[in-house]
Amino acid sequence: MKIAFLGLGKMGMPMARRLLQAGHRLTVWNRTPSRAEPLTAQGATLAATPAQAAQSADAVLTMLFDDAANEAVLFGPENDRSAGVLEALRPGALHIAFSTISVALSERLTIEHQSRGQRFVAAPVFGRPNVAEEGRLWIVAAGEESAIAAARPLLEPLSRGLSVIGPEPRQAHALKLGGNFLIGAMIHSLGESFVFAAGQGIDPAIFLETVNSALFQSPFYAAYGKVMLHPPRDAGANIDLGAKDLRLLREAAAARHTSVSLADTLAEVFAEIQRSGLGNEDWAVGQYRMAQQRGNLSQEL
Prior knowledge:
By secondary structure, the chain is of the alpha/beta class. Helix content is 55%, strand content 13%. α9 crosses α12 (239-255).
């Protein structure tokens, strides 16, 4: 299958590499072309523009940062819509959206693809860059049954599992936002628990091991706790990304008149972290450091 992969950031690069290794014919595009060099050295073709990458593709896969980046690539500039992927992609071709985007944009893309006779699958992923490197992402997918079937051979080399959510692509993007909200809530509660434990003279690492063994038996808690207590050199996902996803969740909830009070509280926490200059910190590390700052301030008072 001829694939165009657009977006070679921390997640996109290992995902594209795995598809290339799986034997797919890969054309890639990235805003910074030099990012593609490791892939072109392995046989991928570099396109000058997103539209050029999409023109002859059977499937276009996007892994871009946010709504603005997706809109710029997919729709093209307002003065030249022909430069966008939507106009370049042939009828019957498939678009798989790996990006975490707003439910509103997902709904808009569904309509735009339908009007052009193109197939659309939302397939946001759970997992950090190291998990993408191992091909062990968990993918949540939604779309028409035939489109999901066409997408499966491209999703399987990337994942350890696939959950099909429903026929509407928006459902997968909504689920991803809900999952990321749970991550943020878990990190926040774990960070405050670590601060509490330290205040009681308990090593946070011992607290984590004990509570996780007694209550959760969760590799997820263990992994994020390790990141918080032993910050990595490079952020897997940063605070600004977490704040963006939380904003999208709250917007989606408001659009359907749903109350998410804890999300509102977490939004205030993220805003405080960003004001403190920790926006580029690893998501888990930044939340933990804010919990520590708040805890220390309480002790001083």
